[in-house]
Design brief:
The protein is built from 21 helices and four strands. The chain has about 525 residues and is mainly alpha-helical. InterPro entries: MFS, MFS_dom, MFS_trans_sf.
Length: about 525
């Protein structure tokens, strides 16, 4: 018989017991707050893109980089940090991640220009709080239903955060504030999340002794970073960007070889990359990328004012779009998305439990195709934009939650961090493509318009055309078709948990104990 000892209750355990909150629910609450602050720092800038360019003196490519830097940095670091956290302390690394978000937003608020702004956003990119929170959800959940319910709370938070994020910037500008004011608000929200997390987030760390796969960690970090940079800059860097991309792919091949031949790999590819998970990883990335691209398209379209160009006959057709709305008004176009995501958050957990992950994927992909086909055809009509974004909101609520559920269902007890790391690798890489892809499609069909240069002359300036936006919406329809294909490829895995980690304290074997 093996002698064991029960780990003493921590301060967090006692607080949760006093509040009568299950550990998995506590994690869900903080994960929802992390989503809230994460969406705020990512989405609030979308309707402010043009204003941010003016206030910080950014070019369109610099603005795109500011939006994309989170994915470029996170692609390599998120999976490494998530796996490292499992061995040291998921709670500690989660709190560090939230602290980085707070510090990064404060740095952006203080930034005088592009360089400091990019550094601040880069600091935020180092936060692995969200994948760590998902890993904690898995380790503290004891059933498929509790997992789906926790993820539904996170989805509901997305709806609230979208409303907050898009109205925040427009409201602050209307009352005389600036983009840096938005950064200060987001830093304050991050600080509040940090304090709540410190009070109620439980801890978890693996008790299994493993060597740290340094070679695998370095190869993954370097490879994914190069791939993300290469994809993000291949359009502007030309051959150099292509070479960076190829170098990244070569390093990733080396990483695969390393992972398949070490005893304790950074990510066990044989376990984490299967039909139960890979389509879900890709679907999670696609839903995230489509969300960013669609939000950029709708707000940019609404803010564009065609009136100054109506006196130029040859530009009346190509530039015949837009309503010249202020930021606060364009933000309202995104409210249907937020409303349906919020409503979905209260029901999607039960829906996935009842109809299954695969069927949920089918419905979400179909809704995506319908939503953006409607917007491609009827983009000049305000109602078409509102209805399309509402349908997309339902698609996002279902699809993104199902993607996370599929990954966590496939992870066994003690495997949450590893599966979450694998997921974040794919999702961050695909999500990092969103802003560059949007910019590439938009300006591929731009026209050169002579605008005042401030010195009495004019300078040719690239302005997107109506064809640019129509092509963006059709590209999103293609994204929906890809979702449908990967939904077909997905193989459902029943929840693999068995130990009620949420209800029992950790039991740690005493070294040297004999049978």
């Amino acid at each position: 018989m093996t002698t064991t000892t029960i780990a003493p209750l921590t301060g967090v355990d006692r607080r949760l017991a006093a509040l009568r909150i299950k550990p998995v629910n506590a994690v869900a609450i903080v994960a929802a707050m992390i989503v809230f602050v994460g969406d705020a720092q990512a989405l609030a800038l979308i309707p402010l893109s043009n204003t941010m360019q003016k206030e910080y003196g950014l070019t369109p490519s610099e603005s795109s980089l500011v939006l994309a830097i989170l994915g470029l940095v996170g692609a390599g670091f998120l999976p490494v940090l998530t796996r490292l956290a499992e061995r040291i302390s998921l709670r500690t690394f989660l709190l560090i991640g939230v602290a980085l978000v707070t510090i990064g937003n404060a740095a952006c608020a203080l930034a005088p220009g592009f360089t400091m702004l990019l550094i601040g956003r880069g600091i935020i990119g180092f936060s692995a709080a969200m994948p760590i929170a998902l890993a904690l959800v898995r380790e503290k959940a004891d059933s498929e239903h509790s997992t789906n319910r926790a993820l539904a709370v996170v989805t509901a938070a997305v709806g609230v955060s979208v409303v907050f994020s898009f109205l925040l910037g427009g409201f602050i500008l209307e009352v005389g504030g600036h983009v840096n004011t938005v950064f200060w608000v987001m830093a304050a929200v991050g600080l509040a999340t940090l304090l709540v997390g410190f009070v109620i987030v439980p801890d978890y760390r693996t008790s299994r002794r493993q060597r740290i796969d340094f070679a695998g960690a370095i190869a993954l970090l370097v490879g994914l970073t190069l791939v993300a940079i290469g994809i993000g800059f291949v359009d502007s860097w030309g051959v150099t960007g292509l070479l960076v991309l190829v170098a990244g792919l070569v390093v990733m091949v080396l990483w695969v070889v390393i992972e398949l031949n070490v005893k304790d790999p950074m990510i066990d590819l044989r376990r984490t990359f299967r039909r139960y998970t890979v389509p879900a990883y890709i679907l999670g990335g696609l839903f995230g990328a489509v969300a960013v691209i669609s939000n950029l398209a709708v707000t940019s379209y609404g803010e564009f004012d065609p009136k100054p160009f109506q006196s130029v006959p040859e530009l009346a057709g190509p530039l015949g779009y837009g309503w010249g709305l202020i930021v606060l008004q364009t933000s309202l176009f995104l409210m249907p998305t937020a409303l349906f995501v919020l409503i979905g958050g209260f029901t999607v957990g039960r829906i996935i439990t009842r109809i299954g992950v695969k069927t949920t994927f089918y419905i979400a992909a179909g809704c995506t195709i319908v939503a953006f086909a409607l917007m491609a055809i009827g983009h000049t009509q305000i109602w078409a934009n509102a209805v399309g974004m509402g349908i997309w909101g339902a698609a996002y609520a279902l699809g993104s939650t199902a993607a996370n559920a599929a990954v966590l269902h496939a992870a066994g007890d003690t495997e949450g961090a590893q599966f979450s790391a694998a997921s974040s690798t794919m999702v961050a890489t695909i999500g990092g493509l969103a802003a560059p892809v949007f910019t590439a499609i938009l300006y591929a069909f731009a026209v050169a318009v002579p605008l005042p240069d401030g010195k009495g002359g004019t300078v040719p300036t690239a302005i997107p055309t109506v064809t640019s936006y129509v092509n963006v919406y059709w590209a999103l329809v293609v994204g929906g078709v890809l979702m449908l294909i990967f939904a077909v490829l997905h193989k459902t895995q029943k929840f693999r948990g068995g130990v009620d980690l949420a209800a029992e304290p950790a039991v740690v074997p005493i070294p040297g104990a004999a049978e």
